[in-house]
Every structure is written in structure tokens, then in C-alpha cells.
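In the laboratory, one determines a bound structure by crystallizing the protein with its ligand and collecting diffraction data. In a computational setting the workflow is compressed into a single prediction: the sequence and the ligand go in, and a structural description comes out. We illustrate the idea with iron/sulfur cluster.
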Amino acid sequence: MTAAPPSRPLPVDPSIAPPGTRNFRDAGGIPADQWHADQNGETLVPTHCCFCGVQCGMYLRVDRGGKVFGVEPRNHDINRMRLCPKGINAYQQVNHPDRLTAPLLRHSRDEPFREASWDEALDFTVSEIRRIQNRYGNDAFGLLGGASLFSEKTYLVGKFARVALKTRHVDYNGRLCMVSAAGANKLAFGIDRAGNPFSDILLTDCLLIAGSNVGECFPVMTQYLWGARDRGATLIVVDPRETAIARTADIHVALKPGTDSAFFNSVLHVVIKEEMDDESFVGAHATGWEEVRDKVAEYPPERAAEICGIPADQIVQVARAFGRADKAMAWHARGIEHHSQGVENCLSVINLCVATGNIGKPGAGYGTITGQGNGQGGREHGQKSDLLPGGRSIMNEEHRRQICAIWGIEESELPPAGTSMMEMVWQMQRREIRGLIGICNNPFVSLPNYAVVKDGYDATEFHAQFDFFLSETAANAHVVFPVTTWAEDEGVMANAEARVVKHNKAQEPPAGVRTDTWVICELARRLGAGAKFDFPGSREVFEELRIASAGTVNDYYGITYDRLDETGGIAWPCPTTDHPGTPRLFEDGRTYHPDAKIHMQVVEWHPPMDPYTSEYPLSLTTGRTVAHFLSGNQTRRLGALVEQTPRPWVEVHPSHGFRNGDPVRVVTRRGSEVFPALVTEAIRPDTVFIPYHWPVPTAANALTIDALDPRSKIPEYKVCAARIEPAERVDEVPAPPTAPGREAYPEAQVSRADPLPPTSPQGRGTAERG
Amino acid sequence: MMGKTIFIDPGRCIGCQACVSACRECDSHRGKSMIHLDYTEPGRSVASLPTVCMHCEDPVAPCAEVCPADAILVTADGVVQQADTTRCIGCANCVNACPFGVPKIDLQAKLQMKCNLCYDRTAYGLAPMCATVCPTGALFYGTLEELQAERPGVQVADSFAFGDVVVSTGVAMVVPADKVQWPVPGGLPVVEVNGVDVR
Ligand code: SF4
Ligand code: SF4
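The predicted complex, in C-alpha cell form:
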């Protein structure tokens, strides 16, 4: 057995604590002698939240024994002390009783798991990889990574797949997140990131938020929205639901799900008709304008209003507010990206920004808000099926040569592009992929069309997962590797502004737990590629990542751990170690295309993939709640968050005749499930909504369609055809799976039996009042 | 009027309950949150409204006034403290007296608990936990001047009418600039007493 990774001593020793570690008193806290004696001597380790793409700074409170036991707000640029409930409760997972602390192993899915030694688990995994690849070829083994991993780890995942596994099949769960925006940004600007920092929101005169429930999904970003409002900015929100930010917007466009690009085309139509476009900006900086102008001519407000199910006047209002503003900005998120036309939707927003000249200026620009902590950085360094480190294309001869030189392999050894996450599941169903390693993802809850996902995973001959809790997907595996949480390792993430921030290690991992880096390198060593994976820790990986990204659009070369500690974050591209980073793009009027122009793209609206019929007349749309994160593997175990939102519901308009809490069966072409009704006027009558953080039989994703955007391959989560009908009783919420010998955190069971949370989720009305 | 205090702006609240979670993390209540988050129009809108202790000034802390055990102390700087556990008898008089519905009784321990403006933090110049984390600034800690510097033209009220009784508070509420009304009508209209319609 190889030794555990070299570990750093406890951070309570100030001489070796991460830079920026402070004792409570220095951090402005209460003098130790006047405060609870049991917390004397605690230290505050600066780090960031592990959850969403805002990446709020926080301190983890570490006790004298070196254990994380709490959180303290941190005055970081991004969040200025603010945190949402997920961030506040995140620390509770670090020493949670459900943590996996030994590898779990079984030889067949009929057996129960047993705890195994690291050697046994690694050897078994390697022998299964060999068996499958010898018999069916290298591409019969796949790797699925995650965008909650530090960038160093995502770099390793991509390298491990191509160099150690020699398979083309590697992808990641950011594929379910913001790849539509990524694709659109690449097409239009040649660079895949938001154009402006959050702080620019404070400077804008008109803020358009499309398909983003900022209040619940990125709560701390709300302070920028309200800051813009304080300055008198107009707020436009495009969302089928009246969310917390839509409630106070100047214009709330409650369009029918799946009609976004028709709406934005029409807004541009009005902008052009009323001569609010910026011909001189477009003439100097953009190509494709004539084609776009001709196309949007086909979308007069009357036509779009009919498609979108909104008044035509509203389109004119939005066009005037956006077109006449001095500086206007558009931010969007999954609401317009999770579609079979996700790339088009994003392009239609970009077209509007470009046509009105709102690009590359303080307070004017575009951005996408990443859902996962490292949704932005997670794909920049080669974890995505078609990308090599530095955002290089795996199809590009020169890019391949450059990376092969860095990795020290022959170009012929580097596999071609693979397929996307959902396509890999289809390949598993067809037995084209027979073995799989999943790292930090939970497709059993997060992929659409659960029946297909389960079938695909069940068909694999070998399946291993890395996780720190036994997720629903890990419960299907043969081997589960217990790995570290974000608080037990160091590494970088890039937030929604493309600002690279550093997470610090706050405590030693529990005995038996290893870092993902160690496990990947150890597997590589046993597969015979050890020399190329000689990384003692994240620092060494980051050094290689910097070099591998040098000279590309995603240039990290100038970013070092020391600089990150000093500055609190640097936005890429950052080509040299004295470069300040690039918070705002295109200030010199040049994009990252060879001709330095913005490539405007023609967008044509088409209906969603799941057709409406009299049998399925409604739109089902899905999303998050503020208390939970993605597949809920982490947050469904934290008492306060479970108490806040213990179970999913179906949001329906009063016109359907249900009362709050009534069991409602939601039926789509994929299946049916029963949820309690949450009756509210805050949703369109033709639309129903279910939050997606729970597994079957309360999984929104058992109902959603696995149709993909042809370019970004993102699934169409945000719209499918459905009907609702009265049911006898609601489906029970299953407890999260736990490893043998462990018990579900008792507090996590709070209120689980209740039909609805004690307080109404987001005030959408669970308790009728007089 | 008020010095450093909490200003509540319901117009900014997104109902995220970060304040509730943060209050639970604050060391003085040991795992219990003292914030009430109310939804004002359930079924119609997502509007929400946080309530912390309003630290009543005039009449001075009705909760403290009715406490038969003199357990609720008011500090010189106007902070109405949580009941002193060595005195509190868990009678719930304070719960009934508070016009804002703030104090809670831990039924098992038979002790009162309430927001004490994070005295362990504010006494040392830090903001209370709820106002520190609130992602939207719906809970703001500072002086009126600091609030107005950040939010030009903001109007606040610190008097609430419950029928004929007016209560002035240490904590203030942001009110819509176009609907300034003083004092702000507090509580719910009384429509029924013991089953009799009294409208
Ligand atoms: S807004 Fe996002 S990053 Fe900030 S605390 Fe909440 S989940 Fe964490
Ligand atoms: S933290 Fe702020 S925004 Fe969130 S519920 Fe509390 S008061 Fe409202």
C-alpha cells in the first residue's frame, strides 16, 4: 500500500496555517477572554463557499483540536460578508456523521457494500478497467467528472482519461449547467466567459435578467441587483414564474417556457424599428448584422406575443427600456440555457446587447451566472469531451500537438473527442460503454429521464464513484472511494465572473479519507502511467495547469497561489505574473476571434422538443430552491436546510382548482409522480414547476425529457409537455442513502413526514390565511 | 433619533432565510433561531418579511414591563435582552405582551428566548449575524445616515400604531417613499373576538 498523501499539520499552529488565517480577535471578533471559554483559541481559515458560482468568501471556524465547527462571514470583494443559507450551513458537512471514511466495495450489484482497504478497492478497480478495455477496447471505459471540483482536479480528470485510461469518453456535469452559454459566447466572442464583473451591475442603467431565479439560486448576487436599483436602474425579469426578484421588477415578462428566443428576436425587432440600435458600434465591431436584421424582421411583437403568451406591449416596453438606456446589461442562467435551443436563446440575448452597443463598457455587457461553484473553471482545462487544457479544441491539430508536448505523449496516443454526458448514458444503455468512473456527480438525480439513466448505469459491468457521501448514484456503484470535502484540501475555482479564487485547507481529512488528486494519481500509477501523474498535491497540479494554459484564451499563467492569497482573486486571461487579470472583456473593442470582431449569429425560434397535445397540454419546468444545491446529495443531509425545504412540491395556478397540499399527479411522456400542490398566482396557468433536488419517487427528473441542444448537448430541463390530475396521496420523500454502519443524520429527518414544510417555501403559499 | 440599529426593508427581502440560519449559528442562542420570517401574501406573491426584536423604546419594552420575575433587562443603550435564565419562570407573559410577536418559549426548558441584537457582537462593534449575512440588505445594521448614504431617498419609520396605542422602537422599518405614513399601522386588524364579528 502506498502512503497517504503528505498532509499539512493542523491549521491552529500559526506558523503553518494557510495565509490569511486569523484568530477570532484579529478578525474583529470578540476578545477571547470575554467570550465563551470553550471557543478560546479558535482560528478562522479564509476560504470560499463550496456551492454556487458566486463563490462567496467565508471563514471556517476551526477549534483547538483542528476541527471545523462553524462559519464566520468574511469581507471578501465578491460578497462583502454576505452568505445565503447554503453557505452558512455548508460547514456542517465537513464532520457529518454520514461521511464515508473507508472505500466501499462489492463485486456485484446484488451484494451489499462492505468496507474495504484502499489497496483492495484500487486493485479491483484497476483490474476491472483492464478487463473491460482488453475485451472491448479503450473507449469502452468512460469517466464523468464534476464542476464542483477544484480546477486542478478537473485538469487531472481530463488528463487521466486521455493519458492513463486512453479513452475518448470523458465529460462532466457542467454539461448540465451552462454549456449553452459557453457555446454561444464562443461563437459570438471567441471566448467562453461572462463579459463583466458583478460590480458592473452596480453601474448599469438597465438590467435584464433572463431565466435566472437569482434570489434562490445565487442569493448573494441579489445585493448587486438591489444596488443597481438604488441608483435607479430599470430591472427587467424574464421568467415564467414570479420569483423574488421578478416581484419587484419594473417589467416582469412571464413568458411561456421554451419561447425565449422568439421574445428576444422580437425585442431586437422593435429596437431596430424604433432606431434604438447602435449602427456605428455594430458597423465597427460586428459581423453578421445584416443577416440578423433580416431574420428579426420576421418577429414583429404581435407574432412573438402569440408564441410567448404575453402582451405585445410588453415586448415594446422591454425594447424601449433596454434600447434607450445609457448602459444596459443582460445576465442569464439555466432558465434560457436548459433548452434544446439553449445556444440560440443565449445568442438572441447577445444579439440584443451587441445591436445596442452594450459591450465592453463599465455597466454594459452580458454574463451567464454559473450554477456550480466551478461551473466556469470546471471546463476550462480539459474535462469536457471536446476540450483540452486552456480551452483548446481536441479537434485542432495544433492544439493537440501543444498538449501532447506538455503531457509527454505521442500525438497518435491522444484520443479524439468523445460524447456528452447524456450521450454517454445512452451509450451505456447500448453497451458501448461498459465501465464508468464518476467523480463528484450524481446523475441519478441530476440527469433527465431517470428511467433511461438507471437503465444505462445498471447495464455497466463496472461502476466506481468518488464521493464523500453515498449519493444515489454511488449507491449503484461497485466501488465507492471516500474523498475529501472542499475544506480538507486546497485548490482554485473560477466563479461566474471568471474570477479565480483559492480555497484553503481548514482541517485534516478524517482517517481513511483521501483527496481526489491522490486517488486519481494512484489509479494512474497502477495503470502504468505513474510518471505522468507524480503530483503530491494541488499546488503541483496547478503549476502544470498554468503552463498548459499559457498562451491560450483561457490563460492562467500569471495566476499563482501566492498572488491569489494576496489579491483575493484574479480574473483570467492573466498571461504574466505582473498582469492584473481581466475583470472586464473587450475594453479595447477587440474580441478573441482572429478578426477581433463580434460574430453575430442568426437565431430562429423553434418549438420545444416535447410537443403539446390535448393529452399533455401544460409546460413542466424545473429549478432550484434556495435551501438546496443541485442533486441535494450534500444539502439534503443538513438539518437546517432540510427543515427549511424538506420536500419538493408542484407549483400550480389556482385556475386548476387544487387546494394547497392536495396530492397532484404530474404526468409526462416519461412517467408520473405525485407531489403536494403549492397553489399560487405566481406562475402561469399553462405552466407547472417542480424543484429538482430529490431522487425518485419525488424526482422532477423522472419526468423531464432527455432531448439535447444539438450544439451544446445540454438537456432540455426547462420545458416538457405535461398534464396534472388529482391523486390519492403524495409520494414519500426517500431518505438519502447511507453507507453500512452509518446512520442518516437524525436532524436531517426533521419534518420529513410533513406533507409540506412548516413555513411555505418562498412564501408561495402553503398555509391558507383568513 | 436612532443610533446604530437594524433597519428592515421588506422590499428587498427574497425570503432566503439566510438570516434564520445565521441566527441559529450565532453563539448566543445555541442552535435556535430568533428570527421570524413571514410571508405576507401566500398564494399570491413571494413577498416575505423578516422580524427581529424591535427593541421597543416607548413604552419601554412591553415584554420586560409585564415580566413578573424581572427577567428581561434593558441595557442603557436600549437593547432589550433575552430573559435572564436564572430568573425566567417560563410563564410566557412576554409572549403575550409583545406587539410584534417576538419572544419564544422553549417549552422543554421552560425558558424564554428572544433576539438580543447579537449583543455579543454589537457590543464590540460587529453587526448582528442576521444583518451581516442578509444577501440583499433587507436587514441592514448601521446608522440612518449610513443607510441613506447607500440608498438615497430611503424613508424609515420607527413608530407603529396598534389601534390607539403607538409603540416607538429602536429598530426601524423602511417604508415606501410614496406612502409614508406615521405611525405605521402595526398588527392585523381585529375582525373577530371570541367568535363575534367586531368590525
Ligand atoms: S450565494 Fe452561492 S456561494 Fe454564496 S453562500 Fe450561497 S451558495 Fe455559497
Ligand atoms: S436573509 Fe435577508 S433576504 Fe434572506 S430572508 Fe432574511 S431578511 Fe430576507
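Chain A touches chain B through 55 residues (CB under 8 Å). Keep in mind that any predicted model is a hypothesis to be tested, not a measurement.
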